[in-house]
Design goal:
- The chain has 504 residues and is of the alpha+beta class.
- It has 3 domains: 291 residues, no CATH class; 107 residues, no CATH class; 61 residues, no CATH class.
- Helix content is 40%, strand content 21%.
- Strands 7, 8, 9, 10, 11 and 12 form a 6-stranded antiparallel sheet that branches.
- Strand 10 and strand 11 form a beta hairpin.
- Helix 4 packs across helix 6 and helix 13 packs across helix 14.
- The protein is flat and about 125 Å long.
Length: 504
């Protein structure tokens, strides 16, 4: 039996949490409140949130202020200077490159059991392919993402994705392979009368089900303001033929980690300083270009006015100023030019962009190695860094799919579709690498007679369905063989009419 009866289990205490370090005099509720308060504004969670903000283009440069040294030596904001906020989102390019490289093409299910393959294809549909690609992006932004298997309102087996900043896991082991329980903290919009308010909600996932709370001022309050009118719910409720409803739970906590790497560190942590430097350089260059009147320092002699503010206003309004020129006091205006060297900015910007690609382990689509007619070795050299990181990410994804398959097998067994617990299955990811088709086709042609035709067809860049292409080749071969037999048949008096039916 894969499900565990949950009618009495939903009120069970979370004893494993206490064993992980909570004080024996601290209640479970107090322990959870303490852990949520510690984690909610922790640097780790802030970096996870930053990863998603930077991917969407919400960078720190957008909040930068122009400052100068004041009279007391302290920095103070200057509001009368250009303050551009330019974002060149190279980080988002890195995330999209990696996600499309590894997860851009549909993965292949390899199993000898055809019936099992058909069942898996129904689960791993286009909707799931899109979700797993989004989970890959979310794991890069947050270091880890979470998949939640559940049954929707129509009773269909589905998956949801939770970002890293919503889930606080309590791991059973040091290698972070098994969960004792997890806390989900998320925001919803509610209404107090006609005014919209933000509500912090908490869900605790353990083997006894989901426990729902409201999080306010560091205190957990049971959430009964939901359609079920119950703060403790099982993962699944099945309706029996007699109309009764029975609650069941999974034997595992239904949260599957999709890790970006073994350390669960976001990609942004490697490139944030470089991305910020790029935004600053572009913004400062634009500021300097707009400060045309400050590129020229004006030296005043015997100015016929009250202060420099009046001088600037007159210069901007009338394009002229009044100076005194009487006797020994000779007035005038002299200029001191300051030139902005755009070449220096361009060189620094190019260096930063290259550093972002190298530290982010991406590739430059405008690399010099792609000029002319690049060979396959140059292309593979350009993809070497992203390929190395894709290997690490694929290792974590394979572990995630092992967990996914356990829940899928439970679903198939409990819905009467078959018991596939001991079936072997492999998930093969098709990486989206640029190739030189001429080189690959030549290598396929040179391999005829050395390796099987099926392997050669599978490696050909124009083939999508190997079995379909092999069937076409076999049919083509049989038709040619038939034509040759008719053409060289000595009993055929008219070879040119070899296709004419015998009865004619």
């Amino acid at each position: 039996m894969f499900f565990k009866h949950a009618l009495d289990a939903v009120t069970a205490t979370i004893t494993n949490l206490i064993a992980q370090g909570a004080n024996s005099r601290m209640t479970d509720k107090q322990f959870l409140e303490h852990e949520i308060s510690r984690w909610e504004n922790s640097p780790e969670r802030m970096m996870q949130i930053k990863g998603f903000l930077y991917f969407e283009g919400n960078h720190d440069i957008l909040y930068r202020k122009r400052e100068m040294i004041g009279e007391n030596g302290d920095l103070q904001e200057v509001k009368n200077l250009p303050n551009n906020h330019i974002v060149d989102n190279r980080y988002a390019i890195l995330v999209n490159q990696k996600a499309n490289y590894l997860l851009g093409n549909p993965f292949v299910i390899d199993t000898k059991n055809e019936q099992y393959a058909e069942c898996l294809n129904e689960v791993f549909n286009k909707k799931f392919m899109r979700m797993i690609k989004n989970a890959g992006k979310a794991s890069m932004n947050g270091g880890i993402a979470w998949l939640f298997p559940y049954y929707d309102e129509d009773g269909e087996f589905s998956f949801r994705m939770f970002p890293a900043y919503e889930i606080l896991p309590f791991w059973h082991d040091r290698d972070h392979t098994k969960l004792d329980c997890a806390i989900r903290l998320y925001l919803v919009i509610g209404y107090e009368g006609t005014e919209a308010v933000t509500i912090n909600k908490v869900e605790i996932y353990d083997k006894s089900g989901i426990h729902r709370y409201i999080w306010e001022h560091g205190v957990l309050t049971p959430d009964v303001d939901n359609p079920e009118k119950n703060s403790d719910l099982p993962y699944l409720i099945l309706e029996q033929p007699d109309g009764t409803r029975i609650a069941y739970n999974w034997n595992r906590i239904p949260l599957i980690p999709v890790k970006f790497n073994e350390n669960e560190k976001p990609l942004l942590k490697r490139v944030k300083s470089l991305q910020d430097a790029l935004n600053v350089m572009l913004s400062d260059f634009e500021n300097n270009m707009q400060e045309d009147n400050r590129n020229t320092i004006l030296i005043l002699k015997n100015y016929d006015g009250q202060d420099l503010g009046e001088f600037r206003r007159n210069l901007a309004t009338f394009g002229a100023v009044k100076v005194r020129y009487d006797g020994e006091a000779k007035g005038g205006v002299e200029t001191l030019e300051i030139n902005v060297n755009g070449d220096n900015y361009q060189k620094i910007i190019e260096i930063i962009k290259k550093a972002i690609i190298e530290n982010g382990m991406g590739y430059d689509a405008k690399d010099d190695r792609l000029s002319g007619n690049p060979n396959q070795m140059n292309i593979q050299s350009m993809y070497s860094d992203i390929d190395l990181e894709a290997n690490d990410m694929e290792t974590e994804l394979q572990a995630a799919f092992d967990e996914l398959l356990w829940f899928i097998n439970v679903h198939l067994a409990n819905t009467g579709q078959g018991d596939y617990e001991n079936e072997d299955v492999k998930i093969i990811f098709n990486r989206d690498m640029m190739i030189n088709e001429s080189d690959v086709i030549k290598n396929c042609r040179d391999s005829v007679g050395i390796i099987s035709d099926e392997t050669i067809v599978a490696m050909h860049p124009w083939i999508n369905d190997v079995q379909d292409e092999l069937a076409k080749l076999q049919k083509q071969k049989e038709e040619k063989q038939k034509e040759m037999e008719l053409a060289y048949n000595p009993f055929n008096p008219n070879p040119d009419k070899k296709d004419k039916p015998d009865d004619e």
